[in-house]
Design a protein that fits this description.
This protein is α+β, with helices and mostly antiparallel strands and about 180 residues long. Helix content is about 20%, strand content about 35%. The radius of gyration is 24 Å and the shape is flat.
């Protein structure tokens, strides 16, 4: 597999999309689940399913639906397996790159990053939604997974006094100088 080749097929051709839109179902097989788990540096992905409705939208498309997945990754505390069920909404707009409106050098361009409907730009007649689904999964992952009730203290690891380090020493100096007349 090349670096630009998608892990799974979720390609929608804009020029062949019916005006009422179409449904797209993704249910990955075990080989693809293993490859995706390796790519995302997870222990395993047990389930990865998506149901999307793709409709034409202003010369591009709008993809809406849900991603359902179950992943396994090690706890950041004990390295024991932690499972996470993911049920995420998907709603993304893909529009063709505007033509003829290229900003001139030195001109200001306003981009509202807070806008929820900030579109992705596409070039060509097709959109590969596999990257969108992988991105949705990646953003839903718990970056610091741990089992319920698990902490360093439950493992018997002493973190030392709460006030240690350079700022604790500075704080001690400040307290001493405050008590001086």
């Amino acid at each position: 597999m090349s670096a630009n080749e998608p892990l799974f097929d979720a390609i929608v051709r804009i020029d062949r999309l019916p005006s009422a839109g179409r449904s797209l179902s993704v249910d990955l097989d075990s080989d693809t689940l293993s490859t995706l788990a390796r790519e995302l540096k997870l222990t395993a992905i047990e389930r990865f399913k998506a149901e999307l409705t793709v409709v034409p939208f202003r010369g591009g498309i709008r993809a809406q639906g849900r991603l359902d997945a179950r992943i396994e990754q090690p706890s950041v505390v004990s390295f024991e397996p932690v499972f996470q069920d993911i049920d995420e909404p998907v709603d993304r707009i893909f529009l063709p790159e505007p033509t003829g409106h290229a900003p001139t050098p030195g001109s200001e361009v306003f981009v509202d990053l807070e806008d929820d409907d900030f579109p992705d730009h596409i070039d060509g007649p097709e959109v590969d939604l596999s990257a969108l689904l992988i991105e949705t999964l990646s953003l839903a992952l718990d970056p610091y997974p741990r089992r319920p009730g698990e902490s360093l203290e439950t493992l018997g690891i002493d973190l030392g006094p709460a006030e240690s380090g350079p700022f604790a020493a500075l704080n001690k100096l400040k307290k001493n100088s405050d008590s001086d007349p």
